Amino acid sequence: MPSRIFVTGLGLISGLGNNVQDNLDSLINLRSAVGPVRYIETSLRDEIKVSEVPMTKAELLSFAGLAGRETYSRNSLLGIIAAREAFLHARLNGLPGLRTGLISGTTVGGMDECEKYYQDFLSNDSRNEFIEIYDCADSTEKIADCLGLNGFMTTISTACSSAANSILFAARMMKAGKLDCAVAGGTESLTQFHLNGFSALKILDKLPCRPFDATRNGINLGEGAAYLVLETAETNSRTGNKIICELTGYGNACEAYHQTASSPDGTGAYLAMKKALDMSGENPDNIGYINAHGTGTDNNDLSEGRAIETLFRGKVPYVSSTKPFTGHMTSAAGSAEAIISILALLNGIIWPNLNFSTPMPELSFKPVTELIKGADLNAVMTNSFGFGGNDTSLIFKKYGIY
Amino acid sequence: MTLPLFLKSMAYINGIGIISPQNTIPGSAFLEPVVEHSGEFLSAIEPLFKSYIDPVAARRMSRLIKMGISSAKICLRDAGISMPDAIITGTGLGSVEDTEKILAELTLDGRFLNPTPFIQSTYNTISSQIAISLKCHEYNSTYVHRCFSLESCLIDALLQIGEGSATNVLAGGIDEMTLNHLKIIRRLGIWKRKAVSNLDLWSCGIPGAIAGEGSAYFIISGENNAHTYASLEAVETLFKPGSPAQTAASLTSFLNDNNLSPENIDLVLMGNNGFEDHDRICDEVVDAALPGSSRILYKHLCGEYHTVSGFALFLAAGILKKQYIPASLKVYPAAGKKLENILIHNHYRNTDHSFILVKR
Question: Are B95 and B62 in contact (CB under 8 A)?
Answer without folding.
Answer: yes
